[in-house]
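The following block was generated as part of the benchmark described in Methods. Ligand: zinc ion.
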Amino acid sequence: MVIRYYTAPDVKRLVDKMVADLHFTHINPDCVYCFRSEGSKSRRTVARIHSLEKLWQKALKTAPRYLIEVIGERYDKLSQANQEKVLIHELLHIPKGFSGGFKPHKGYIDEKTINRLHHLYTRQRTSAERSSTAGIQSLTRGLSLRLKHASKSENLKKH
Ligand SMILES: [Zn+2]
């Protein structure tokens, strides 16, 4: 079966909101694209992140760009919360320098980190109604420091 790709404005909206709400200031949302694929043979993958490599950036004289691809058959079946967690996972692969490279799972991306960020994101949504973001900003700052020291023995889910 041929893989088909579609732009995914629903995913893009969610990604932009998460980048803003989680204060992922190293990510330039204008350079993050979101696509949905259908017909992928991959059984376990829910989403993956692609980037424009350094050499392509140079050849095309363009800034780094990232593309989050969700596998429609799997992603669309998840609950809203799990979709959000999948996107947090992919966003965590983007390094602080927004260079076009990737951060590895080991030491950076694990279930505990994702759950913690998701908790912050959910709290942010409710605290936004009270128009108070100061607390969440300091929490996120503390968290990004701790991220670097995330446990290496966590079970890693590969996407
Ligand atoms: Zn991953």
